[in-house]
Design a protein that fits this description.
The protein contains 16 helices and 60 strands. The protein is an alpha/beta fold and 802 residues long. It is elongated and about 105 Å long.
């Protein structure tokens, strides 16, 4: 037998186990398709005479490329902007068109929203009689804003030169003699030229331009209020943004004044601009049809556990870089004004894999190529499996005391095929204490928000949606290895045992209940030698042993002080909305901590014979993770229902070489392909628990479940989810435990008279906890169909921000 074949046969089960999730063929997972924007011709402020009676309303839903089966229905709403009970206007639908019916003098807000409720635009309407003054900025403001208030910086860029900031107003006066009744006033920190409409900023602070009426009964006073941010810089294009971020050593405060979009969202088919407030994200060369991102992105070293990468690089010539890239490096406050920054041109794969399913794949020059490896089985050039660590980032928030306000960040155009976000990276990663994200919209990436080892993070009144794996991933970078000075003591089957570190972890005495003997007994397979007396252990004995070993490998006393957990990461979600994840809305992470991660147990002897092929045995790459604390407050809600088939567990590993390997081993007997559920039965356990306990909500014969949180298992996870100040906490069902080891121990069928596929699946099931650890996963879910099929309340977010 060749060394390669031996490698494949002996290592594959552990490769799959270390991978955490795997598949035997490329999966296509579809979720509900949404529009990605709304187009219309309205200014921010419109004025209609009451005598007009009604006004036709017109808006067009914008679909992402390749999206066809989309509910593009738009719904119009109107509400008073004053305290009067009687409506100034209403909406009329004649079966084909919507109309704004003008009913009385006053100011109203007109909004249009898609069927899912996550995309919305609005404009103000002044209904008048006699005369009116209406003010807009000449360059229209974003109509996607959640906060609805405008921020400007003290400075503009002229190339790379900094100049005093200015902008223009467009004032409509009807009839013109209304100006006889108007006095123009301004705040002291701006100058205003009424003839040209130019506003020049003099200093920071609250500001206004006011057309004050001398006779309110004839014409109403009109005022434009805004705020000038001290040391802030107005960003009107991609290079302005680079000047404030990637090209600035310390960073500059950004006041965004334009959308920065993908190519197809910036230009029409004839290459004319779609609108005046949208610019291209990136510097594009029309001759080469390429961008210059490789010269512009920010590079940083991974902050996560890279111990295995270090061990791999010591023994291999094909070094693995620990470097990651960020599209935008944010070091100062960021005022988004509701404008969109879409990094699709940078993050999205450029190669088409399948036109039928609209699947994409990496092109040769693509910079975003997936996360760094946490552990590899095989070599970096030819991996059987990579377990993923930290990923590339769209917006890297790097530093303490930074606030993102009214930002609309997305890593890519929307795709209802989850697999198309495999390489798109994390939308927003936080790296600092006292960071705030307020009144914002974060969307479309592999993970939407990642926060590890940060103190006092606050996410407030923010919509987060469309994550390939999790919407938010929470954890800590720090962990503690095993205390080598501590005596290891435990009881098993009525007998007490006490071992030194060396006796338990290093020595191979078969008579001692050491690491190698326990892990071999727990695996119970012909792949490794098991003591004869251990073969007859009962399932309950093995469960006890698993808990004993987990407590030794994950010693929570090392991450506690005075019996209180030492939280290295603290984050609060207040009045937030979560929508459409591939796995679960929020994942509270912990590192894998099974015996395989310590030293390759229980197959370390086999592995040592194969190291010459580039294989690296894990050497204490894991340990006990410091915990996180997650606070959920106010009206934080999760609109994340999915069928059990849509719980996609294939997204956290690289399976480039996996299919070929399975074919090499199983050959012609691979009639029934292995799926992820054959060896990592999370969906099977979740499905059974939901059926047994009545957690499913059934609609039209299909079962749906909404799982807002997943407390990762494997290694012991002492993280805490605090719902004390959550208004709808009574809708949550807590502590749905998914015990992977118990499942595979008690539910695995006998190998006798089974095919090689079934036998292989049985081995894989037993191998998973050897890498992962033995702690159950802990989930929460909504009960009684709470929020099922309800639209995202983005208007509620806007109301709260006012």
């Amino acid at each position: 037998m060749s060394k390669k074949t031996l490698f494949l046969i002996l290592i594959l089960p552990f490769a799959l186990a270390i991978s955490f999730f795997a598949v035997s063929e490329y999966l296509v997972t579809k979720v509900k398709a949404d529009i990605q924007n709304i187009s219309w011709e309205y200014k921010n402020n419109e004025a209609y005479a009451l005598s007009e009676g009604e006004v036709l309303l017109d808006a067009t839903p914008i679909l992402a490329d390749g999206e066809e089966d989309v509910d593009a229905t738009l719904t119009w709403e109107v509400k008073n902007l004053d305290e009067k009970e009687d409506a100034h206007a209403s909406i009329r639908f004649d079966g084909k068109n919507y109309y704004l019916v003008l009913e009385s003098i006053g100011n109203v807000l007109v909004s249009v929203t898609n069927s899912s409720g996550n995309i919305s635009k609005s404009f103000n309407v002044k209904i008048y009689e006699g005369g009116v003054v209406s003010m807009n900025t000449k360059r229209l403001r974003s109509q996607n804003s959640i906060e609805g208030f405008d921020y400007y910086g003290e400075y503009d860029f002229l190339g790379t030169k900094e100049i005093p900031a200015s902008f223009y107003l467009d004032v409509t006066v009807k009839p013109i003699d209304v100006m006889d009744y108007i006095t123009i006033e301004t705040s002291s920190n701006v100058e205003y030229n009424a003839l040209t409409g130019k506003v020049t900023i003099l200093s920071s602070g609250d500001a206004y331009i006011r057309y004050k009426s001398k006779e309110e009964s004839y014409v109403e006073t009109e005022e434009y209020d805004f705020k000038v941010i001290e040391d802030g810089y107005n960003v009107y294009n991609y290079n302005d943004l680079l000047n404030c971020t990637n090209k600035s050593d310390a960073g500059k405060i950004v006041c965004l004044q334009a959308n920065l979009e993908s190519f197809n969202n910036t230009y029409n088919s004839d290459l004319t601009k779609i609108d005046e407030v949208t610019e291209l994200f990136g510097n594009y060369n029309p001759k080469t049809k390429k961008y210059s991102f490789n010269k512009e992105v920010y590079h940083f070293e991974s902050t996560y556990n890279t111990n295995f990468i270090d061990q791999y690089n010591e023994k291999n010539s094909d070094k693995i870089s620990k470097e990651l890239i960020a599209g935008i490096h944010i070091q100062k406050d960021f005022y988004g004004n509701g404008y969109i920054i879409n990094e699709h041109n940078l993050t999205y794969p450029t190669k088409t894999l399948s036109t039928d399913d609209y699947l994409v794949a990496l092109g040769e020059d693509d910079l975003f190529r997936g996360p760094l490896p946490y552990v590899i089985i095989g070599t970096n050039g030819l991996p059987i499996i990579k377990a993923y660590g930290q990923d590339n980032v769209g917006f890297y928030v790097d530093g303490d005391n930074i606030t993102l306000r009214d930002v609309y960040f997305k890593n890519c155009n929307y795709s209802s095929t989850l697999e198309n976000n495999d390489y798109t990276g994390t939308v927003v990663e936080l790296n600092g204490d006292n960071i705030k994200v307020l009144n914002s919209h974060l969307t479309s990436g592999r993970v939407v928000l990642r926060s590890y080892s940060n103190k006092n993070t606050i996410i407030e009144n923010t919509l987060m949606e469309k994550g390939r794996e999790f919407i938010a991933r929470i954890g800590s970078n720090e962990f503690v290895g095993i205390d080598t000075t501590k005596q290891i003591e435990f009881s098993f089957k009525g007998q007490d045992y006490s071992y030194s570190y060396d006796e338990f972890f290093i020595d191979q005495n078969k008579d001692n209940w050491n690491l190698n003997r326990i892990s071999a007994a727990l695996l119970k397979t012909s792949y490794v030698t098991v003591n004869e007396e251990d073969k007859n252990l009962s399932d309950s004995d093995r469960l006890v042993l698993a808990r004993i070993l987990n407590g030794i490998l994950s010693d929570t006393s090392l991450v506690m002080e005075n019996n209180t957990p030492i939280y290295k990461n603290e984050i609060t979600f207040r009045d937030c909305v979560f929508y459409q994840s591939g796995l679960f809305s929020i994942g509270l992470d912990t590192i894998f901590n099974g015996p395989y991660m310590f030293d390759g147990s229980p197959v370390k002897g086999v592995l040592q014979n194969l190291q010459g092929d580039g294989l690296v045995i894990p050497n204490k790459v894991s340990g006990t993770n410091y915990p996180s604390i997650l606070h959920l407050e106010g009206e934080t809600e999760f609109y994340d229902y999915k069928s059990i088939d849509q719980v996609n567990l294939s997204c956290l590993i690289d399976t480039t070489y996996l299919n070929q390997t399975i074919n090499d081993i199983l050959g012609s007997q691979q009639e029934n392909k292995l799926t992820i559920d054959d060896f990592f039965p999370v969906k099977i356990i979740l499905d059974r628990r939901c059926k047994e306990e009545g957690y499913y909500y059934t609609d039209s014969g299909t079962n749906y479940v909404n799982t807002p949180f997943a407390l990762f298992g494997g290694g012991i996870n002492p993280s805490l989810i605090d719902t004390e100040n959550l208004s709808n906490k009574d809708k949550l069902i807590q502590n749905i435990k998914l015990d992977i080891y118990e499942e595979v121990l008690t539910k695995t069928t006998s190998d006798q008279d089974q095919t090689i596929v079934v036998k292989g699946a049985n081995v894989l099931k037993k191998c998973v906890p050897m890498a992962l650890g033995f702690e159950p996963f802990d989930l929460m879910t909504y009960k009684d169909g709470y929020l099922f099929n309800e639209a995202i309340p983005i208007q509620k977010l806007k109301d709260r921000a006012q």
